[in-house]
Amino acid sequence: MGDGANARKLYEDAVEYLCRHTEELRPLIPDAVWESAVPLVRDADPAGDAWRNAVRELHEAVEAGGVPNGLGLPAVMGVGDWPGRRIPRASGWVCPKQNRCGRVELRNGAATPTPTCALGGAEMRPVGG
């Protein structure tokens, strides 16, 4: 997330949310995180990295505690956070001529013999093949 006014507003909104709901959120945050992050959030310069990192740490602790989207900060992706390869969710057959027709089965089902495409007049090909 950037350092602009919009980013700062998001972080300030997250702190405001934490302050309004401290009683409910405090039990979800481990003591070590609370004791290290709260003094920084309270005393550090909101324009600095230390302040934003402390808010992010509290956000992640609340999210890990079971509150979807934590304190409301958008997700960030870092090294190693990229999604893996796409997992095929379907199997089956598609028409050999411009995919005009198809018969798709869920991957957990039993495979069927290769059907003939009525429109294309040829054997259909496997999904993704």
Which key phrases capture this entry?
single chain, 129 residues, mainly alpha, 4 helices, 38% helix, elongated
Strand content: 5-15%
Shape: elongated
Tally of individual helices: 4
Unreliable stretches (pLDDT < 50, length at least 5) are: none
Question: What's the mean pLDDT score?
Answer: 76
Number-wise, the strands total: 3
Task: Find the structural class using helix and strand composition.
Answer: mainly alpha
| Largest sheet features | 3 strands, antiparallel
* Distance, first to last CA: 39 Å
Main β-sheet, spatial strand arrangement: 2-1-3
Helix fraction by DSSP (H/I, runs of at least 4): 25-40%
- Rg over CA atoms, rounded to whole Å, is 25 Å
Instruction: Output the helix-strand order.
Output: HHHHEEE
Task: Itemize the secondary structure elements and their pairings.
Elements: H1 5-20, H2 22-25, H3 31-43, H4 49-64, E1 90-94, E2 102-106, E3 125-126
Antiparallel strand pairs: 1-2, 1-3
Helix pairs in contact: 1-4, 3-4
